[in-house]
Each structure stands twice: as C-alpha cells, then as structure tokens.
Specification:
alpha/beta; five-stranded parallel sheet; five-stranded antiparallel sheet; 17 strands; 31% strand
Length: 269
C-alpha cells in the first residue's frame, strides 16, 4: 500500500541493487517522471524512496544511507539548500533538479555541482548520474556543498571550484590569472604560478566568470584584467600579464578591450 504523498515511501519502486538513490521534490508529477527516467536510463540505480518536503527529506536522510540525492531547488516549505544546511553530515552526492533559475544555475556552476533543468533530458540525466558516481572524496563533496550553501546564503560569487583528475581545487576567483583553451578542457593559471587542467571548455568560464574583470581576448584565452601589465605589438597584438606571459589579442576584440581598460583606469582615478 502506498502511503501519503506528504511522507517518504518506497514500496512501489522496482528495486535494482546498486547505487542507492532518493528523490526529493514537492511535485508528484516531477517525482513520477524522474523515477521513470532513472529506472529506464540508470540500471545501476536502487531507488530507496522519495520525499516531498524539506522536513521529510531531512528525516529520511538522517536515518538512511544513500549514495545520490536528486534534490529539487524550490519546495513549498523551503529549498534544497535548506535540506543540506540542516543536516549534521553530508556523505552522499547531490544532483539538483530545477526549473530554470539563473541564480541557482550560476551557483551550481561556480561550485561544480551537478544539476538538471526541468523537463529533464535523458542524456543529461545519464551524464549527471555517471559523474556523481565518480565524485571526489566525501570531504571534498562536503566542502563543495558548504561552499554552495555559503554562495547562496550570501549571494556572493567570490569562490569557485575546479574539478580535476586528482580531485577538486577550491579557490577565490581573484587568484585566477588567466585561462587557456585545451579542446573541451581548459588550463587555469593562478597568480602563485600553479596550473591545473579542468574538464570545462573556455565558453563555460566565459559565461560564469564576472565581467569586466575577466575578458576573452582571443578564442583560446581569457584573462583576469587585474593582472594585465601592458599591450605590445610583436607580429600582432599581445597583452603582457603580470607573470610576463604574452597573450594574443584578437583583432576583433581589440577595440572592446581598449575601451574596457581605459574605463577601468578612469574608475581607479
């Protein structure tokens, strides 16, 4: 017998032993749709149950061991962020589900948190599910979540998370010197001389890093304008960074960049 939709239930789920999942969403139709998608496209999934409120979600997560939580952003009695904030510990991976919310999506991207936009695309579900199974250590996931909660509560995008082959890098955006394209990946250079390779392309960072502090000089380069020292001509136009590296300045971006830097100088004065 199925219990009330206001509480957790699991008896009618077809159970496939494997990755333990809970679905948290206050809309019945959304839970039903996501359940069908998971069972059809994620055969390793074992759906333990579902919750329809912040209160019932916390109750379930405090008493059950799960691997992945599909968590709606907006619910009638609060948000998915409230669920995570009120838990004593976070030892599971999270995939947020949401109707388009510009602020939430930006927060997810800054903290390298997986999310799915409703209506959920099966291919994106498979990708997020597989990525969640390959997440970093529980300590790193906890730090991601804590940074996300801090970002959303303060509405401050001053920190960013970079996934790498060795785990997660957490840093302030002011520490980023420049980014360089490497196919579907990007090299990130920091002012202390460190360099990492992260699995997002340059367009991804162009969309989320704050303008005008970060500017795409060229199809292969984004720079932090705070570290620009000068421009030079050397068989083309270049920008010299504080670490003496020369970065090419595309002809079509030259005028916009000049206006940006002139405006920045005037503002400082």
């Amino acid at each position: 017998m199925i219990r009330s939709e206001s509480t957790i239930f699991s008896p009618y789920f077809r159970v496939i032993m494997g990755v333990k999942i809970v679905i948290i969403d206050d809309e019945l139709s959304a839970r039903v749709t996501l359940r069908k998608l998971i069972l059809n496209y994620c055969p390793e999934a074992e759906i333990l149950g579902q919750a329809s409120s912040v209160h019932s979600a916390i109750s379930f997560l405090e008493s059950n061991k799960v691997d992945i939580v599909f968590l709606d952003v907006q619910m009638q009695d609060g948000t998915g962020f409230d669920v995570l904030d009120r838990l004593g510990r976070i030892d599971f991976n999270v995939i947020f589900t949401t109707a388009y919310d510009e602020f939430a999506v930006k927060a997810f991207r800054y903290n390298a948190i997986d999310y799915l936009l409703k209506p959920i695309n099966p291919d994106e579900l498979i990708l997020a599910f597989n990525k969640a199974n390959e997440k970093a250590t529980p300590q790193q996931v906890t730090r991601q979540i804590n940074n996300l909660i801090k970002t959303t509560s303060e509405q401050n995008f001053d920190r960013i998370t970079f996934p790498t082959s060795n785990g997660m890098i957490f840093t302030y955006i002011q520490n980023i010197l420049r980014l360089e394209s490497c196919g579907n990946y990007s090299f990130v250079f920091f002012k202390n001389g460190d360099r990492i390779l992260t699995p997002q392309n340059l367009k991804y960072f162009e969309e989320i890093l704050p303008s005008p502090h970060f500017f795409r000089l060229h199809q292969s380069f984004i720079v932090n304008t705070s570290f620009v020292e000068k421009t030079i001509k050397d068989e083309g136009d270049f920008v010299v960074m504080s670490d003496t590296v020369k970065v090419p300045l595309a002809r079509r971006r030259k005028e916009e960049f000049s206006k940006l830097m002139s405006s920045s100088i005037k503002t400082k004065e």
